[in-house]
Amino acid sequence: MSICGSYDVTLDNEAAGTLTVSKQGTSHLFEFSGPERFQVSRLVCIGGGAVASIGIPAPKGQGMYLKKVFSSGTMAKIGIEKIDRCLIVPVDADLSSLTASSGTETTSSTSEPDAQSPARSESSGESGEPAEQPSRESQRPPPPGSWQIAQEPWNIFSDERLRDECKKAGEALISSDGASSILLAYPYSSDSPFPIVSQFPSANMRNIRGKTYVVYRVQDGVII
To answer: Which of 115, 131, 215, 216 has the largest CB neighbor count within 10 A?
Structure first.
């Protein structure tokens, strides 16, 4: 039985978008699109007593988007041969409870690491936090359209919590928009923790050097 087709996706029993599954050679392409933004969440498919974690949608325009390609080997490990429901659930949801609530008995292993796995390694130089915050003026970005590795990007922020989140987010790129704001970009992967998750509603996705990045606009020490 082929699982290719289009499926309605729900969030708290409300329509959240559409998932399209298609074949690409021996692999399967999963592509989700939702018209409205929601908090960091996980897209899962349920069917035949199995539950598969597809990934974590990211902001795109005014809505949400996710694209994943699973090889035939990964599809075999997922063990899902049909799709009965597609849900948006919290990233730390107990997936086994989803099949249990559907009256099924078994649950396959998910296709991606657990959401509670450690965040990406912190960049060098973070262990010794300075006694005083360096001036944000020292964080001079390159001209608009150019990107370079950000040196201690957490010092751009005026809020202590944002600085802490920035330190845990890993290496970032920095640029400017030609005005008074700074652009800060983090590599995006649906298999990795979302960078600066508290600012998720302000995130935008952008292709930089052929890769997808989460981009934040920072002005006067805050994300706008």
So the answer is: 216
